[in-house]
Design goal:
The structure holds two protein chains of two kinds. By secondary structure, chain A is α/β, with parallel strands linked by helices. Chain A folds into three domains: 57 residues, 3-methyladenine DNA Glycosylase II, Chain A, domain 3 (Orthogonal Bundle), CATH 1.10.15.40; 263 residues, TIM Barrel; 122 residues, 3-Layer(aba) Sandwich (Rossmann fold). Helices cover 40% and strands 16% of the residues of chain A. In chain A, helix 6 runs parallel beside helix 7. Chain B is of the alpha/beta class. The N terminus of chain B is likely disordered. Chain B contains 13 helices and twelve strands. The longest helix of chain B is centred in the N-terminal third of the chain and has 24 residues. The two termini of chain B are 63 Å apart. Chain B folds into two domains: 77 residues, no CATH class; 306 residues, Dihydropteroate synthase-like (TIM Barrel), CATH 3.20.20. The chains are: A alpha/beta, B alpha/beta. At the A-B interface, strand 4, helix 6, helix 7, helix 8 and helix 9 of A face helix 2, helix 10, helix 12 and helix 13 of B.
Amino acid sequence: MKINSPLEAYKYLPGTNCAICGEQTCMAFASHLIDRSKKLSECTPMLEDKFRKKLDQLQGLLAPEIRQVEIGVGEKVVKIGGDDVLYRHKLTFFNQTALAYDVWDTMDEKDLVERVNKIQGFKKFYVGNFLTVDMVAVRSTSNDPKKFASAVKKVVETTDMPLVLCSFNPEVLKAGLEVAKDRNPLLYAANKDNWQQVAALALEYDVPVTLFAPNDLDLLKSLAKTFAEMGTEKLVLDPGTFPSGKQLKETFSNFIKIRRAGIDGDREIAFPLMAVPLTAWMVHDDPVSASYWETVVASVFTIKYGDIMILHSIEPYAMLPELHIRDTIYTDPRKPVSVDPGMYKIGAPTKDSPVFVTTNFALTYYTVESDISSNKIDCFLWAIDTDGIGVEAAVAGGQLTAAKIKKGIEESGFNMKDDTSHNTIILPGLAARLQGDVEDETGSKILIGPADSGRIPGWLEKNWPPKK
Amino acid sequence: MTQKMKLTQLTEMLQELNIESLEGVTIEGDIELNITGGGGLNPALAYALGSEISQISLHMANIGRMLGFPAEQLFASAFGMNGIPGPQAPSLGTTPRMQELLASKFEVAKMSNWNNPIQEVTLGATSADGGSRKSTVTIGGENALPYYFDAAMPHRNYVTMDVFDMPIGMAKAVKSNYDDVINDPAEWAKKVVRDFNADMVTIHLISTDPLIKDTSARDAAKVVEDVLQAVDVPIVIGGSGNPEKDPEVLEKAAEVAAGERVLLASASLNLDYERIARAAVEHGHVVLSWTQLEINAQKELNRKLMKQCKVPRDSIVMDPTTAALGYGLDYAYTNMERIRLAGLMGDDELTFPMSSGTTNAWGARESWMVASPLKQDSDWGPREYRGPIWEIVTGLALSLAGNDMFMMMHPTSVQVLKEITQTLYGSIEAEELDISNWIGAEV
């Protein structure tokens, strides 16, 4: 983005405070444009002819430094790139790293379908949503156009996830494109030898294309400049992912250099970046070591500017951390850290239902909440105001104390004696040391729950209702 | 001045030369070229025209050669080239839109506002400096974000492995490594150095907590002496986390470890940090300044340690708190990154090396539970593999945010974290790999 203050955007807006966008004033709307929480298209008056010039100008000023590229079609479409900052706290990172897992065209058909189904079926519940992976990368290991076409066809029939078509042979890529042309797949890749033919394919089929120049940033920039000149900016840059030693350090530098140059305004190189942690498998024979190292490399380039990556291991111990580190980095740091303190009803609690205490740290609260509600447990859940700090740290740091718990209960207007039949509070296992104090402060009976809320169902079976 | 030439004129010229056709060149319609001194043309169009004209000129040169003129020499001298690349044969029946890659040079500037180095801190003291450690560990000294090309990182990352003064609850994958030493902190310390390549050892005096065993400060200090005897690497001494008891425990520990330049863990705003700081200054130790994910609290505590307690700058390490992957690592990561950037850009209250309680990763259910408690989840796979990678990724993320030293528990995690951080640091050699055809690799 070329501007950084609401005033600079305001100059281009109608200034009528018409509120069609949902904001009371054009100035308020301008500040949302600057923090990218609203889109210019929400200002419909700007679409009028008389504003056309200003609309174009403002659009240019607001465009993200790193171009955004779309892969796939329909609901599963993946957007990558679109970033404006080098550090997430400066704004937030947009369009989380797309994770593509590979299949190859020398696979047995049955294995291929099974693998694709594993990839598209993988899910992990987290803070109210499922974490899932995004794409399938089809590699041509046969270098045979027919085989590749048939593998791509099978993948297209099995999933509507976006695809990466991988071969350095333009004939092979073309065969794949013929089968998947309606899916807007990403081509991988144009290199110094095949770029003319791959460019022709990208232009003819109007699909995004990856440019591959291992550890050669001059060549990579030349390719990007040339492709842009030929008429496509739907580009993804792969500076090569070397999996070990000094070469990996060099790869790390390359990612940082390219992204810094892009954010600093070098338009010729301001495209999304691809990492290929799969190369870890070229230096590790043992599958566990290879999966580990692939996950490590994937983590490095999720944090440092990889916008899309191709991976091989579909072991849960690789996919789970990959999904979580991506969520970690792409979570909007501007979203609140905490939930409102107070008493929350989960399900339809009655006087006999258990009363749990937790903190108002959003992650803690939502974890406990999902563990309870997904197991269909009716209960009261107290979010105590710990300044948004989790249980263990809040006990250590003095933000979760008996006095705080008493205050929290009182302020919610809940009365343990009248509103429950058992006058019993269940503390988190990690707050066990507060048991005596809380008993003294509140006069209620105190039970110590499990250290992890995932164990609440089992714990309740043994401990609830409380013995008299 | 504008020169005008119609392509039809070229054709006419060629006809005059009795050449019937030019292979590979078709001139359709009648394009008029207006070549002005500068500007005006859209770059893409200009390029296309340039390409077209250059192609034609090549063919013209060929005609010249047929007529006996050494055209290639003319080109070579005109463009400073030794040869003229011939047009590449297009395949797939498509005419290439461009014959050559546009030349380009990649350039990027180094950061201009990172000009405040991070403080160097040395842990451990050899006999030359009044201690009995065989070697010392120095962290900090950075002039850039970790592993960045802007400035070489002066010291690698270090790992200190946890040892407890009593058996504690641990994930099964962790515990199985320590079953034989769990009742003997000195043997435990030896094991992590000898077998697991720990750079340092942290002795956690958790039994001193009045709610656990209420071990006296004097008895706890004996454990510290045992550990100092057992290993010759620098050590970290941790309390139980009880704010009333810790100052007394750490004072006594600092006293018996006098001269060893240990790291006292930790001073925080919710206990009598002054006692801990004073013990460190008096006995030549380093203080761990611990705050909870709050950059301003970190500044405040560091300021108090420096101004109020007179702790020298080379005797402070920060622990801004580590939250596990999936459990607030986003806050921990960004908090550390902000602290490090502020330090590099001149905030002298934040220019200290950092330490992470990476062991916290084992609090994440993903690292230790047999299976997901939620039925909707996909299979989580074997926890033996899930746990160590959780600790690795938690630590790795923070290493990229600027963390210098890691407190860890699982031997595999330690090994892999060291491998990746030292690779990025640049001290790991590996055979060069050619990835130019990775797509075809059999993996």
